[in-house]
Request: fold
Amino acid sequence: MNLDDDDRPPATPAETLLLIQRQQAETARRLSPDPRLVYWPWGLAWLIGFGLFFLRFGPDDRVFVDLPDWLPLTGLFVLLTAAAVISGVSGARAYGQVTGDSSRRGQWYGLAWSLGFFSYGAILSQVTDHLPDDLARLLWAAVAVFLTGVLHLAGGAIWLDRSLFRLGVWLIVINVVGVYAGPGWHALVVAVAGGGGMLIGGTVAWLNSNRS
Reply:
């Protein structure tokens, strides 16, 4: 019986090891969501959404573009919802083939995001009505970015993902910088450094996965 080159068993232990490594890399690629579909939707949502806040509610209440008051917040929520759907579908397709502890980690991690942001909205809605408008907007934005950064840190620790962990550190750092810069400036910092950081992070993760 004649065998094609692809059907022949490895001739040496080195070839066997190389074959195993290739199969492991292919399996990891199939079971991991495309980093572009995870990072880029959120990066664009932050870049555009917080950019609208900066243009309408700039430093010292400066208006760079006379947008309706409701547009920045509405636009941000629509963009974040779209990003959540895109990244959620991408993750479900990839992790849907995984069972056991890895599957439970993903489910619990997703639940942590839902509970975290539900609590965030419930708590701040009882506080921000007693603050000036500029400080209320700053508090809403700063706590959201902080919570996002912490959840990224947790995800990086769970899956030992350096890119995810580093992104969490970056978001927390720029959030602190933005808060100290003050209302208006915080939106600009988060839009450019946060949204831009996610776009760059997704690109780097994608390039690394292709290189692997």
In short: The two ends are 36 Å apart (CA to CA). The longest helix spans residues 133-159. The mean pLDDT is 82.
